């Protein structure tokens, strides 16, 4: 007797069969222009784009005619944004993101977009980028229109609930009563290519009493930049190389947890009330002319007694011959993680030994490749000829990123294995450069017991 077939065939399913919540999540992953276009493929989809929690108007993704002048493209883009915001119902969104090549005669348009994002849509994240890329700022013969910075109306935030604010290439129009207005919802600010006077910087911070995260990139200051905030927890400066005057920066943030400097040229630093600071990051182009700025910034560690993580490049050997180094009694007792960009020459090993002397409780050291532009300066013979001794009584693990397998690197590994009292493992991340290509191989873990050495995957040839 034949058994009846019990096979059940699943019905053919399409995107239209998915719940609206899933479709909305899919549309959220693409720019708003594409989301609108995709919403037109089906009557069922037409209202979906207006329910997205994110509005992303990206100028660089807007369709253009190669022969079309930039101002004409900007005009079409502005019309598109105008129409999209008119058709959008007043439902709350999480993020409003705009990138646009701004001309002064679009001020009323952009003002309207910002007001809509803040007051109509109650956006919690506001991201405005008026730079995009340098290629948009190379003038052509057809593009003679004056291009100015947009004056961002900071007071509009009083009527909204913006928590995260990102502004690129703008001027800030700060209200005179900034300190009393109070932008209490703002917790994170990112500013790039924004020039303010010292007084305006102070007014900005005073007007955001709950600000926790502040990042300043490629900005300008007068002479005395003062960051004073009881709420600030994370502060980052980046690319302040155009400070040609005697600029000073003073940081007084008793609850600051993380402090970062990336390519800065302040001539004086002052750090006050830094007992909460646990992370310190410092990165400079490795040129001798920038060493003075590096040394002044790194000495801020003397005002941060509880720092636990330091990320810095290896210029420490120069401090050995400096008249203005750390006091002999200075140590980083609480430092447990050191991220060091370094080479492995004798100069680098001397510098590494110098910083290890300051870190008696260090447990983890991560070493990354340092691109040197200038050659190492000469050190006294008594320092160079002295055997390198690493003080690492508590160091348990070392990671060597971008391990090329050079003789200097192998000699360094040998030193680690000989002098590491409690060192448990060394992890190497092999890399090989061939022409313009770079090949990363699986990590190699060297354990204290040679028989426990492991290689995760195939090793490099």
Question: Main attributes?
Answer:
461 residues, disordered N terminus, alpha/beta, 3-stranded parallel sheet, 17-stranded mixed sheet, 22 strands
3D structure, described in words:
The structure is a single chain. The protein contains 11 helices and 22 strands. It has a 17-stranded mixed β-sheet that branches. It has a 3-stranded parallel β-sheet with strand order 9-11-13. A two-stranded parallel sheet has the order 4-6. It is of the alpha/beta class and 461 residues long.
Distance between the termini: 64 Å
Q: Briefly note the structural class of the backbone.
A: alpha/beta
**Which spans of ≥5 residues are poorly predicted at pLDDT below 50?**
1-6, 455-461
Task: Please give the count of helices.
Answer: 11
Please summarize what this structure is.
The protein has 461 residues and is an alpha/beta fold. It contains 11 helices and 22 strands. The strands form 3 sheets. The chain has a 17-stranded mixed beta sheet that branches. Strands 9-11-13 form a 3-stranded parallel beta sheet.
Topology, element by element:
Elements: H1 20-28, H2 32-39, E1 54-58, H3 70-87, E2 95-99, H4 107-120, E3 125-129, E4 150-153, E5 164-168, E6 170-173, H5 178-181, E7 188-192, H6 198-206, E8 213-217, E9 224-228, E10 234-240, E11 248-252, E12 258-264, E13 268-272, E14 279-283, H7 291-298, E15 309-313, H8 316-319, E16 337-342, H9 346-357, E17 364-369, H10 381-384, E18 397-403, H11 407-419, E19 425-434, E20 437-440, E21 444-447, E22 454-455
Parallel strand pairs: 1-2, 2-3, 3-5, 4-6, 5-7, 7-8, 8-10, 9-11, 10-12, 11-13, 12-14, 14-15, 15-16, 16-17, 17-18, 18-19
Antiparallel strand pairs: 19-20, 19-21, 21-22
